[in-house]
Amino acid sequence: MPLALVTDFIHEPLEIEREVLSGVAEVHAVSAMSTQELLDSLDNPVLAKAEALLVYHFVSITEAVMEKLPQLKIVVRCGAGYDNVDRVAATRRGVLVTNVPDYGTEDVADSTMAMILSLMRGTHRMSQICQRGTDNWKYELVVPLNRVRGQTIGIIGLGRIGTATALRAKAHGLNVVYYDPYCADGTDKAIGVHRAESLSELLAQSNVVSCHCVLNDETHHIIDSEAIAQMPRGSFVVNTSRGGVVDVSAVLAAIESGQLAGAGIDVLETEPPAENDLLMKLWRDPEHPVSERLILTPHAAFYSEQGLEDMRRKGSQNVRRMLTDQQVRNIVNDL
User: Fold this and answer.
1) In the CATH hierarchy, which fold is given to the domain comprising 105-296?
2) Catalytic (active-site) positions
């Protein structure tokens, strides 16, 4: 029977994967925490016979990984982003690459809005200050604070999650502007938002910028020091997309200077971050402004029990489709 490997993030028990792939494939969890750990595990000749990979975000499926899997037929990225899969190498080897773009649309949008509201209303900052101890037990801790209604949110990437975030932001009275050069004309009219023709146009008017784009060469560090400098002083940045979309070092510097009043970060370029990473040092330093102005979560914006089940079930269903000669969905490489 064919073998499907869950490379990382999800571990035993694998009831969902085994239920979906029952009678079609055996399923094994590698539980790798890095690409090197995955490579080392594939020295096992049994695992090297895998025909399918269910991949999350702790590992990258490089050509070196594929070379150890001569029978590999499909890589399913159980999530929306697929920048950690070498699609060129996969195409060259005839390996399908797919993703699961719709597993946590609502959950990520809800998490995004939770961060935005906590930052803009000063909730997180007041909580941090009060927890440490203060004699000033009143609103003055976060003066000045402006009403949410009427402020502008700039959304980078108006796909499924970007659209869900836009609709939620509208409900809170925010003026919604988006930048997405690949979005079909008329989308702004359909959902009642405004389109910016350039990134600079969006940045200049946004009190908060929320990133919802894929990570590629075009979007890598699309929010950097130059971009942040174009935003109004005292604005916010939120990233629940992919770590490489935002230059976190630029965010830290901007919080320290006051250009940014705060930020919400759910995704990092290296996960988990090293203990000696500057981000972690400043975030954990109660004397540094980053400690009370940064909301940092562990790549969990997608999480709900329902969302987690969706990503596992829908990823496994695509493996089943491939192994049973059905139409595979959400192919993201040129096969």
Assistant:
1) Rossmann fold (3.40.50)
2) 242, 271, 299
